[in-house]
Amino acid sequence: MNAAGGADGAKRPRELDAACGGAGLMKRVHAWLMARHSADYELKVAERKRALFAGIDGDVLEIGPGAGPNLAHLSPAVRWIGIEPNPHMWPYLRRAAAERGMSIVIRRGIAERIEAEDRSVDAVIGTLVLCGVRDQDASLAEVRRVLRPGGRYAFVEHVAAPRGTGLRRAQEFVRPLWKMAFDGCEPSRETWGAIERAGFASVQLEHVRVEGGLAAPHIFGVAIR
Questions:
Q1: Does position 98 have pLDDT exceeding 90, yes or no?
Q2: Is 132 helix (H, G, I), strand (E, B) or coil?
Q3: pLDDT in tens, 149-202
Q4: How many CA atoms lie within 13 A of 193 on its CB side?
Q5: Are strands 202-209 and 217-224 parallel, antiparallel or unpaired?
Q6: pLDDT tens column, 6-46
Q7: How far from 41 is each of 38, 44, 182, CA to CA, in Å?
Q8: Residue-wise burial string across 177-197, b where 16 or more C-beta atoms lie within 10 A, e elsewhere
Q9: What is the C-alpha separation between 133 and 130, in angstroms, rounded?
Q10: Sheet of strand 202-209: strand arrangement
Q11: Do 195 and 220 touch, CB atoms closer than 8 A?
């Protein structure tokens, strides 16, 4: 299979817009923004990501890989599959993989319905994904389903601020507009609770403040199948 995981990877922007339906232009803009303007954020989290992804090898599935920033922290030898619903991200993913000398497979899908066999991967990676999925519980059930026993789910998510704080109230106030502007992302989700109740054998996570602004509160962690 080629690096795009199918012929759609070679489509032109207008064809990709059509594949996205009425949201095609917004999907294209979101992909461009993610690819062009995330470097500062990635620098801030690079050290934590390197530690989080250390030792990941074998069959690796990433949900919502976006433009592919996490590929820089993985061994080129991993067998990587990306589940990316926005086809406008695919050219950026292929470029990031080529820079790393990686062979990748991209599949169009969503976290709530992962195109992979039961117990088929050694690790799942998800960074800044659960803020935007429609159903966190269903997405995490899919992560557990595709992981082999003892497999690792490594995650980074921006999350809700503590209840009762001014930042939490601000997150709630802007949530409708934020969701529309950032491809379904919600800034006030208590994502750590969804991960802790998802049925993993163990969960280790840390609450960290990454930067200023509404998306400052983060969690970094690993859950074991």
A1: yes
A2: coil
A3: 999 999 999 999 999 999 999 999 999 999 988 888 999 999 999 999 999 999
A4: 6
A5: antiparallel
A6: 434 445 555 454 444 445 666 777 665 666 668 889 999 99
A7: 5, 5, 16
A8: ebeeebbebbbbbebbebbee
A9: 5
A10: 104-107, 79-83, 59-63, 121-127, 147-158, 217-224, 202-209
A11: no
CA distance 189 to 169: 12
| CA 180 from centre of chain | 18
Spatial separation of the C-alpha atoms in residues 190 and 174, rounded to whole Å:
16
Tell me, rounded to whole angstroms, the distance of Cα 78 from its chain centroid: 17
Q: How confident is the model at residue 216 (pLDDT cuts 50, 70, 90)?
A: very high
Backbone φ, ψ for residue 37 (5° rounding)? -125, 25
On the question of pLDDT at 2 being above 60, the answer is no
CA quadruple 9, 127, 181, 89: dihedral, nearest 10: -10
**Per-residue confidence band for 4, with pLDDT thresholds at 50, 70 and 90:** very low
Contact yes or no for 106/97 (Cβ under 8 A): no
Amino acid letter for position 123: A
User: Tokens 């960074």 map to which residue?
Assistant: 127
Q: Which amino acid appears at position 4 of this protein?
A: A
Mean pLDDT, the chain, rounded, equals 89
pLDDT(102) > 50: yes
Residue 159 to residues 2, 142, 178, 206, Cα–Cα distance (Å): 35, 21, 14, 12
Distance CA 207, CA 122 (A): 25
% of the chain beyond a pLDDT of 70: 84
Write the burial class of residue 35 (CB in 10 Å: 0-12 exposed, 13-18 middle, 19+ buried).
Answer: buried
